[in-house]
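Please predict the structure of the following assembly.
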Amino acid sequence: MLLVVLLASAAWADPTPQDIQGIMQRDFHPRGQATMDRVVQDGVQRVCTDTRDRPPPDLAKALEADQMKTIVYPEGGLMGDWKRGEAIAQSGRGLTWNDKAGDPAGGSCYNCHELSPHELSHGTIGPSLRRFGSTRGTGPEVQRYVYGKIYNAKAYNLCSQMPRLGDSGTLSAAQIRDLVALLLDPASPVNE
Amino acid sequence: MRFIAFAAALFASCAASAQDVGKEIQRYRQMVAEGSPAELFELQGEELWKKAQGPKNVSLERCDLGEGPGVLKGAYAHLPRYFKDADRVMDLESRLLYCMSTLQGRSREEATARVFGSADRPSEFELLSIYIAGQSRGVKIEPGLSQPKEKASYELGRALYFHRVGAWDFSCASCHGDEGKRIRLQELPVLYKPQYARPVMASWPAYRVSTSQVITLQWRMNDCYRQMRMPEPTFASETTVALIHFLTVTARGEPYHGPGNKR
């Protein structure tokens, strides 16, 4: 398994991710809330870089299980308010060097996903989420999956391009609950 | 006039059904591409190029952009490249900074105090870039790739393109990695593939209609890293030059046709 990783990196990664990290530490400077700890890769980023987002299945499973442990489910229900969820899905703010630290961030959902049929300006990097609740059901298991996926997408697909929105501190538990409602509430436009 | 048409196109695209949206975007982009205020900025850039400045009170006219001191024709199309005097690979903006330092005697701090301009008030680097790039129209893009340091720069740029990092785990390829993807309505060129890199790289620097700003490749690298939730890359650093070098090599062979307009 380790051999596969090494071969994969030897095939393309020259310079190595370690080299790149050193170069970035020299060539970047902190600005606003964007501090220099962000140029240091964690294990997930390193493995996904090393394997060009195609980690060996065993390694992916093990690291996904680690990521699953980061997910913190709040007390009480997971379904918030879909109207607040829609506003969070629209907003692309948060965590950049010109966003004010402490201001609530958005989920940037529409940047990559189709959700409400009333929003034509949606991206296509992620799959369409239209009628997500009406096709998959809205029970506790689906709620738990949606909450977890938004909290830490890497727990379900190690090299997903989706940010770990809860784990990175981008969204609060209350905000993620509102996004769960946007996807699952039968009254949400997503389920029209 | 163009802006009325632009508003009409936007309105039309709002009213259109989802499958018409792509066509409307295409139409808007075509309108934007026709006629550019970039040409006005070329004149201002020429004035700056010839203006005596700095402690040595000289102009940049003897600056060697790779084709010999003061030679502008085709210079931009052959950047980034290795410069023996600086012993490093430089893009246009890092080379200009070098000349501001060596010829004009200016400090890095003073020369880079305002590298990115604001609406209708471009920076010195932006005006100079527009002017100099304009002297490469019709010249095939052919950055340096024969020197060892040029090869290393290209390899570094390619590795950076796929390096996942930052608060949101992005690499350049997170957005510019698969064909036919968009962020909101913005189409995303797959810039590590020549067929997508060519038309894009041949049009920078540019005038950005939506913000009334002149934008350069150093700005583009900077703002992508901002959106990647990363700290700020230092202007003209090896990282930014290597990425620009990688993208430009990927686009080689395309006749330069900028400076153009962007949405």
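Residues 1-16 of chain B have pLDDT under 50 and may be disordered. Chain B has eleven helices and eight strands.
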